[in-house]
Design a protein that fits this description.
The chain is mainly β. The chain is built from one helix and 28 strands.
Length: 349
């Protein structure tokens, strides 16, 4: 009962959406020690995967319908998150080493040594492979989801990869955070086919979403806070729209034709694709400060954001400049995370 009251109070304090159909439907105060980075929804398996740092690191797994914890994948060193194959029912934690696990029992199947520094990740149903991304080379390690064997590596994506998307037909797109471009990758040959330059429209892109049917990319960038919309066919810039904060993740819902960008300042910007040549900011939803990453439940059309409460930042020494909020990602200008305050924010209509 106490947890329920706290969750209700938190929803009230967060506030409802600005004018528009979306609002915060629920805040599940899951708790648990350690920081967090990525969140991934397995819509078919009805699981939600969250990487939690600490000692030991682990992937915490929740029921996607109730947000109740169902278990953990343990001993994942320097874990950032996890994804799963609907075909093989194998999960993979982006950790060092990568941990392969059974998505039903959560038991570890094997560990996979990879080079670089595992960070972001992508599951590609085109050939049932998992891509483990790294800012250092090799920039991507490609794993066969059926048996955990390494299918290959992409030594150089041309910079630091953040988020990747797949068209499901053999092409991947990867936003290169430090090089203001998007790498286009052939999933068969594991080669970079092109780089789409953002032409000075924005930099520091950390979120990437794809309308696969109409071949449109949505690059959520931090400098300035801008969604750059471009053709996935040739990289032509179609539009730029303002974001309400500094993005660290983006998703696209093909059923509603909307792109979502989550921000560390506690906002979610929703962009409507009215047609393949017409786009508009539809709504901004107030979520929870620190809620920088998100995922989409493709079954319910709900967006899930992970966040936590933080204590006030310590007073800076006399004469020191104010603490820097690095891109709104929630890493600067705040105090320590409040124990057991980790939360899952559910946004929907």
């Amino acid at each position: 009962m106490r947890k329920l009251c706290l969750a209700v109070a938190m929803v009230a304090s967060i506030g409802l959406a600005q004018d528009g159909p979306y609002k915060v439907l629920k805040v599940a105060k899951a708790g648990g020690d350690g920081g967090f980075d990525y969140v991934t929804a397995d819509a078919e398996g009805r699981r939600l995967y969250v990487g939690r740092s600490g000692t030991p690191g682990r992937v915490t797994v929740f029921n996607l319908d109730t947000m109740e914890k169902v278990g953990e994948v343990s001993d994942t060193n320097r874990v950032h998150g996890a994804t799963a194959s609907a075909k093989s029912h194998h999960g993979f934690a982006s950790s060092s080493p990568v941990v392969m696990f059974d998505t039903k029992t959560l038991a570890t199947i094997k560990t996979i040594d990879v080079k670089g520094s595992p960070d972001g990740y992508l599951y590609d149903p085109f050939n049932d492979r998992v891509y483990i991304l790294s800012h250092s080379k090799p920039n991507a390690t490609v794993i066969d989801a059926s048996d955990g064997s390494i299918a290959g590596v992409i030594d150089d994506l041309g910079g630091a990869p953040e988020q990747a998307v797949t068209d499901g037909k053999g092409t991947l797109y990867v936003d290169i955070e430090d090089q203001h471009n998007i790498a286009v990758v052939d999933a068969k040959s594991l080669t970079v086919k092109a780089h789409y330059d953002l032409q000075g429209k924005a930099d520091g892109c950390a979120g990437l979403a794809l309308d696969a049917k109409n071949e449109i990319l949505f690059a959520a960038c931090r400098t300035p806070n801008t969604m750059v919309i471009l053709s996935a066919k040739d990289g032509k810039i179609l539009d730029t729209l303002p974001l309400d904060g500094s993005s660290d993740g983006a998703v696209f819902n093909p059923k509603t034709m909307e792109a979502f960008s989550s921000h560390g300042n506690g906002t979610l910007t929703i962009i409507k694709e009215n047609s393949p040549t017409s786009f508009a900011v539809e709504q901004t939803v107030k979520t929870m400060v620190g809620g920088k990453t998100l995922t989409l439940d493709a079954k319910t059309d709900r967006v899930l954001i992970i966040a936590a409460e933080y204590a006030a930042p310590p007073a800076p020494p006399a004469g020191a400049p104010p603490a820097e909020n690095k891109g709104g990602r929630g890493r600067g200008g705040r105090g320590p995370m409040v124990p057991d305050s980790f939360s899952i924010v559910v946004v929907g209509k």
